[in-house]
């Protein structure tokens, strides 16, 4: 071909390429189109997630259903409203501590001091209110403030000084336990003030049935509004969005669960104050992590410290703040445990408290490797653990050894599942 013919061909080729580019349909991630393919699309998406290791809360929810089914069959009264109401009470204190642990685990770190912080907070509060005559409300505020400060101090040594979190919090576990004994002094046990603030934390119920049903209504309405708002925002910018039929189905499922829980609680004493606080903390923490810039930064630091630093995130601040949250929720959980037991003593926060709250967060779906998990993991995980303990007790197997062995086996299964899930995600190119 001559040079002239080549030159003549070039404009034609360029024009054709430009036209083809203009007519081409932009590549779209097929995962974004499943909502437009009906049930078959959702089934395809579900299979993709399973193969890719994106299991979410499926294992823990499935496990919880199996546990409840087995104990109901063997005892015949596990799902009685009275028993479920008791479980709802027992999960509050450890659940609040586990929620704080979730924040730390999202960074891929660990906090071994939360049990000691829980015990110290209850000790400080009780000593101030009972021995020193300080107003109990003020004593509670001082105790929680002390817990937050302790978390900040530990976070400072970890984030600024560079001491490993394991070492810092292990030192805290020992040091704060000793300070707890020092604060209590010769009186190693202090009873809660009768009908006082700490006493009511775990013993007050909203007996009017409107309270439980009202909370269920607010929860369903809030969920429906958030789903509709996301639908509207994505539709406004022409992004793939869930159809109204799916939003309706999701809201219906949440409504069934919420009102079933409200009905169950109303068969007994009503809505517990402690459960209300716990759910409120979980919802608030979930909102912070999923809907705020701070939450996205926490996940970013957990996903990779250097990448987060290069993106302009203040890694030091994020780390200190996370340990502050863990300390505060550890102290709050300690007050609820003191309310449940009726006393603030030298044993509060000791024993297997630390192991149980860490196990709850991990069993619920929070990764030990960082970057994956939600506050709902704490709720689901502690519900699994408490269900096992309660079920074994009802069967007559109240042995601590049996409970510990079963809980340990469940924890190991959760960690193995997490590890396998991460490997599957890496193989699928999504880790």
Report on this model:
The chain has helices at residues 3-23, 38-51, 58-75, 81-90, 92-106, 114-131, 136-161, 165-184, 197-203, 209-236, 244-266, 273-291, 293-303, 305-310, 315-341, 353-363, 375-394, 400-427; strands spanning 189-191, 205-206, 271-272, 343-345. It is mostly helical and 431 residues long. It folds into two domains: 58-203 and 283-424, Orthogonal Bundle (ABC transporter involved in vitamin B12 uptake, BtuC), CATH 1.10.3470; 208-268. It is built from 18 helices and four strands. Mean pLDDT is 84; it is low at 1-15 and 17-31. The two termini are 51 Å apart. It is globular, with a radius of gyration of 26 Å. The strands form two sheets. The chain has a two-stranded antiparallel ribbon.
Helix and strand layout, with pairings?
Elements: H1 3-23, H2 38-51, H3 58-75, H4 81-90, H5 92-106, H6 114-131, H7 136-161, H8 165-184, E1 189-191, H9 197-203, E2 205-206, H10 209-236, H11 244-266, E3 271-272, H12 273-291, H13 293-303, H14 305-310, H15 315-341, E4 343-345, H16 353-363, H17 375-394, H18 400-427
Antiparallel strand pairs: 1-4, 2-3
Helix pairs in contact: 3-17, 4-17, 5-12, 5-15, 5-16, 5-17, 6-7, 6-8, 6-15, 7-8, 7-15, 9-15, 10-11, 12-13, 12-17, 13-15, 16-17, 16-18, 17-18
Average pLDDT reading: 84
The total of beta strands comes to 4
Summed up, the domain count is 2
CATH topology value of the largest domain: ABC transporter involved in vitamin B12 uptake, BtuC
Order of helices and strands: HHHHHHHHEHEHHEHHHHEHHH
Amino-to-carboxy terminus distance: 51 Å
């Amino acid at each position: 071909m001559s040079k002239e013919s080549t030159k003549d061909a070039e404009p034609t080729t360029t024009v054709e390429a430009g036209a083809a580019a203009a007519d081409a349909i932009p590549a779209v991630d097929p995962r974004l189109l499943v909502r437009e393919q009906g049930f078959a699309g959702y089934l395809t998406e579900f299979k993709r997630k399973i193969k890719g290791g994106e299991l979410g809360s499926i294992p823990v929810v499935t496990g919880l259903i199996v546990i409840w089914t087995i104990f109901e069959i063997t005892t015949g009264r596990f799902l009685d409203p009275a028993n479920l109401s008791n479980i709802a009470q027992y999960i509050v204190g450890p659940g609040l501590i586990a929620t704080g642990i979730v924040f730390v685990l999202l960074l891929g770190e660990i906090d071994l001091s939360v049990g000691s912080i829980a015990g110290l907070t209850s000790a400080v509060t009780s000593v101030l209110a009972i021995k020193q005559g300080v107003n109990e409300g003020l004593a509670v505020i001082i105790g929680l403030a002390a817990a937050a400060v302790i978390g900040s101090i530990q976070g400072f040594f970890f984030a600024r000084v560079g001491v490993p979190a394991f070492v810092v919090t292990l030192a805290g576990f020992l040091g704060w336990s000793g300070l707890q004994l020092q604060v209590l002094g010769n009186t190693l046990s202090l009873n809660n003030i009768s009908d006082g603030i700490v006493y009511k934390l775990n013993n007050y119920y909203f007996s009017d049935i409107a309270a439980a049903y009202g909370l269920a209504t607010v929860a369903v309405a809030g969920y429906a509004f958030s789903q509709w708002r996301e639908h509207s925002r994505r539709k406004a910018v022409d992004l793939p969005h869930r159809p109204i039929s799916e939003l309706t189905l999701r809201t219906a499922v949440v409504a069934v669960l919420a009102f079933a829980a409200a009905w169950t609680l109303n068969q007994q004493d009503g809505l517990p104050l402690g459960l209300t606080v716990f759910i409120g903390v979980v919802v608030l923490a979930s909102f912070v992590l999923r809907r705020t810039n701070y939450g996205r930064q926490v996940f970013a630091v957990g996903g990779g410290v250097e990448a987060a630093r290069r993106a302009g995130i203040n890694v030091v601040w994020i780390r200190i703040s996370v340990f502050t949250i863990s300390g505060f929720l550890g102290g709050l959980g300690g007050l609820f445990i003191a309310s449940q037991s009726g006393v603030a003593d030298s044993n509060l926060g000791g024993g297997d408290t630390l192991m149980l709250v860490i196990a709850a967060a991990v069993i619920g779906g929070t990764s030990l490797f960082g970057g994956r998990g939600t506050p709902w993991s704490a709720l689901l995980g502690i519900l699994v653990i408490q269900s096992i303990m309660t079920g074994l007790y009802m069967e007559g197997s109240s042995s601590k050894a049996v409970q510990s062995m079963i809980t340990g086996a469940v924890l190991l299964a959760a960690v193995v599942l997490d590890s396998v899930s991460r490997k599957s995600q890496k193989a699928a190119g999504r880790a």
